[in-house]
Amino acid sequence: MVGSPLRESLEPLRRGLLHRERADVEDLALTDILTHLPNRRHARVFLENEFGAAERGRLLSVVLFDLDSFKEYNDRYGHQAGDDGLRHFAEILASTARRMNLSSRFGGEEFLTVLAGSDEEGALVFAERVREALASLRLSSGSLTVSSGVATYHPSMRSPDELIAAARPLPSEAGRQKLRARLRSPARPRNRR
What we know:
Elements lengths: L4 H26 L9 H16 L4 E8 L2 H8 L1 H18 L5 E6 L2 E7 L3 H17 L9 E7 L7 H8 L11 E3 L12
Parallel strand pairs: 4-5
Antiparallel strand pairs: 1-3, 1-4, 2-3
Helix pairs in contact: 3-4, 4-5
């Protein structure tokens, strides 16, 4: 049976709708619905790619942010205020990071920023800018503070997980507005032939 002229004329529209629906589903799979930042899955894919570039000599740092005493904030002011705080912090990250970098909601009140082409000093400056922006933010329910850990790629690191682990503060270091940097110089990787 030969296709009707109407069916043939609608085919490009159908393909366009399918393409848009697929893009919407992909966006939902890679975006945190509350903060509209990339989610953990998106961050992992991005970090895998940047880690590969770091193994070839490109600078790479990460900053892991954790909103201080967030459970208590939620308990005291309510979940709506907690959600508002998460959204405001996400806006700070999105407006502070360069377009070539990626800030994501990594889980709960934890956020990860991947700083492609950045050394430890640049990552520390970024973390401090974010901390200052949050400190100056006036929320209707109360103030939030953030602790952060900074790590820079080192050739001894074998995976992105090691880089993230290096940025994660030790339990004894956790607390209000702490900033921790991994104290390893970002040496260039060995030649791999």
